[in-house]
Amino acid sequence: MKVEAKLAEGKKLGLVGWVQNTEAGTVQGQLQGPSNKVRQMQDWLKSTGSPKSQIIKAEFKNEKNVKSLDHSTFKIVRP
Q1: 3-state secondary structure 33-61
Q2: What is d(CA 39, CA 60) in angstroms, rounded to the nearest whole number?
Q3: Is the whole-model pTM more than 0.85?
Q4: CA 42 to chain centre
Q5: Pairwise CA distance, residues 79 & 29, whole Å
Q6: Beta strand pairing status for 27-32 and 16-21?
Q7: How far apart are CA 36 and CA 65, in angstroms?
């Protein structure tokens, strides 16, 4: 999955955090924002994804509520 599409969708939803492609051909990242917007992004990642992506599965781990955001933007992190 291209990280650029994930970045665009995250920004559209008003989320902050980061995303990166891995050497294994997967995408990983961190999402922060209103819980309903995070859920919308998770649904998009599970069902739509970027053009030409082949979604086999989507896993979301280490979910927690935060009092303040750790990030101010949504960005691509290069390995």
Answers
A1: CCHHHHHHHHHHHHHCCCCCCCCCCCCCC
A2: 10
A3: no
A4: 7
A5: 12
A6: antiparallel
A7: 12
Across the beta sheet with 16-21, the strand order is: 27-32, 16-21, 74-76
**Residue 46, CA distances (Å) to 49, 53, 56, 69, 71 in order:** 7, 11, 9, 24, 23
Q: Which domains does the chain have, with CATH numbers?
A: 3-76 (3.30.70.100)
Over residues 12-58, the pLDDT tens digits come to 999 999 988 888 888 889 999 999 999 999 998 888 887 877 888 88
The total of other beta-carbon atoms located within 10 Å of residue 45's CB is 22
CB 3 within 8 Å of CB 22? no
In 3D space, the residue among 37, 32, 39 whose CA is nearest the CA of residue 18 turns out to be 32
